[in-house]
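Friendly challenge for the regulars: who can give me the structure tokens for this chain first? No prize, just bragging rights.
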Amino acid sequence: NQREDRFLDSLEIDEWGWHELGEKFYRPPLFGVHEIEEWFVKKSDSWMARFYALLGEAVESHGRTFNLGRLQLVRVEAENKGVANVVPQEAFFAPQEGEGSARRGIHFVKNSMLETLRSELRKRLARVFLEHVGVKPFDEKALLELRLADYQEGCVEPGSKHVEDVKRILRCWKKDESIEEIFDGVPFLLGRHEDGEDIWLAPEELCLDEPYQRSGLAEHFDIHERYPLSPTYSKSLTDSNLRQFVDFLRAIGVQDE
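First reply, four minutes later:
Bragging rights claimed.
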């Protein structure tokens, strides 16, 4: 398609300033997504880093907005010195330099690529753009989100590993209550079904009753349509952890009255 070819040719970064390039990328491409992604793969690390820095300047200094979350444009660490680009939501900034290949299956922004930028200003602007399009730091919250994805996909069984997940969540919540938002709609808690079996449920599908508190909610499923939290946690958590767990449940939307 000649129109797509001309479009790709017009994106040569050496020929265009931030404004012209910004005009091309301020919204998702209407055509040729696959061709654009293949074009990115052919670009060198230094070119990609300059590209990020240029658009980072557009974001920071000129208020540009780029909606490019569905494009595989983030250069990440790859095995055997290959080239790998992923969508922004699948990429993370490594916690420390050199840790980019330490965790299998997790995509870290390629540090050596960013290091091709000579000035600290350009490195910072590259990061500004990557954060803008959805790349996140690989911190405790990111680890929890990855683990919660396992619950979403039904890959977790009730048992000791789930209890360890709960303890880890409580430790993280104690440090940063803002993580409460990541649990919305995620079936990572055990509720007691009417047939007596435990099932995975999201916070908004649960209520608190015995043995955690006396609320009477377990008897009124026909009114609030929420299952009581499974009693298993009362047996597997210490008293201190259990008190914190109940506070956490209330904070994320489990009904308690």
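The chain is about 45% helix and 10% strand. The radius of gyration is 23 Å. Your move, everyone else.
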